[in-house]
Amino acid sequence: HVNLAAMRVWERSHVFEHSWETVVEAAMNKYPNPMFNGVLSQDVVSRSVSEDGILRTHRLFGLLFTGVVHRLTNLGFYRQFNSLIDLDVDVWYGSEHTMVDPRARSYLLHSKNITFSRGITLEERLEYKPHPDNPTGRTVLQQSARICCPWWPIGGLVETILEDFVYDRMAAKGPRAIEWVIANRIADTTADASS
User: Fold this and answer.
1) Is residue 1 part of a domain?
2) Which of 19, 36, 47, 183 has a CA-to-CA distance to 175 between 20 and 30 Å?
């Protein structure tokens, strides 16, 4: 089949009213989190610190993706899509690589789906850096994603559904999840240390 499905590229930025160190600590300890009940598991595959102090981590995640399946079923495309991949799989798995450079004050995260990766590509890139106007008190998050499903003729529909469900809905929860960690876990740790 000819690939007529257009790749979707998604971008968003957010400014936190917290220092880079506070935001990165929260981002690295984001789960479990009430904003993301669908994250069922997270396992560290590898973690290392290079001679120049850069921390690199590789983690695997297990996620519930039933919302996408329900959406396809409601639109009447379950049978066609299920003939290509097994939609009865309850848990989708993803791989995440992070790099923290404390000297440059940079935190990069790159994630990609493992489940259904032959037919659907979901890649996300997050970058946390100090805000140029207030590098000690504010942090800028740049989010970008690439979604591709080459299956003609329903690839474009799948990309639209994933863009709406995964990035317009779920990715918007990311900054709120980090704020929750800062308000609850980091604040609790600080209070314990001072008492």
Assistant:
1) no
2) 47
Average pLDDT over residues 146-160: 73
Helices and strands in the chain: count of H runs, count of E runs:
6, 7
Q: Give domain status of residue 2, yes or no.
A: no
Q: Please state the φ and ψ torsions of residue 19, each to the nearest 5 degrees.
A: -65, 160
Give the DSSP per-residue string, 133-156. TEEEEEEEEEEEEEEE---TTTHH
The owner of tokens 């102090």 is 53
Instruction: Report residue 98 as tokens.
Output: 């992070």
Burial status of residue 57 (CB atoms within 10 A of its CB: 0-12, 13-18, 19 or more)? middle
Element (H, E) at 26: helix 20-28
Q: Which is more confidently placed, 56 or 90?
A: 56
CATH number at 122 reads 3.30.530.20
- Predicted confidence band of residue 1 (pLDDT cuts 50, 70, 90): very low
- Reduce the DSSP state of residue 169 to 3 states and report it: helix
Residues 30 and 8: their CA atoms lie apart, in Å, by 26
d(CA 68, CA 134): 39
Residue reference for tokens 């690589």: 97
Q: In this structure, what DSSP letter does residue 195 have? A: -
Would you say how long the chain is, in residues? Answer: 195
pTM comes to: 0.81
Mean pLDDT of 151-172: 69
Number of domains the chain contains: 1
